[in-house]
Design brief:
- The protein has three helices and two strands; from the N terminus they run H-E-E-H-H.
- The longest helix is centred in the C-terminal third of the chain and has 40 residues.
- The two termini are about 40 Å apart.
């Protein structure tokens, strides 16, 4: 099973590398007020993929911290309650 995983990773890497080599032509991204950015297509895709992933992680952080706080409160309540260890078993 480990070999299949490595073969799949190598195959995915080779496919992405071939995609990057095929799409190395420069493209122009135009912003407001006449500013623009010219870079290879694969670099643009990579930058915007990373920005999207970072935005997704940032959107989840508030929920994760809220859940951690709630877990800590529940643990404190369980420790403070007399006989909590006996009820858990």
């Amino acid at each position: 099973m480990r070999y299949l995983s490595w073969i799949a990773r190598i195959l995915a890497f080779l496919l992405l590398l071939a995609f990057a080599l095929k799409n190395s032509a420069p493209v122009t991204l135009r912003f407001y007020f006449g500013s623009q950015w010219e870079a290879p297509l694969t670099l643009m895709l990579l930058v915007f993929f990373c920005l999207g992933a970072a935005a997704g992680v940032a959107a989840c952080l508030a929920r994760i911290y809220r859940q951690r706080r709630e877990i800590l409160e529940l643990r404190r309540d369980a420790r403070a309650r007399p006989g909590a260890a006996e009820d858990a078993t």
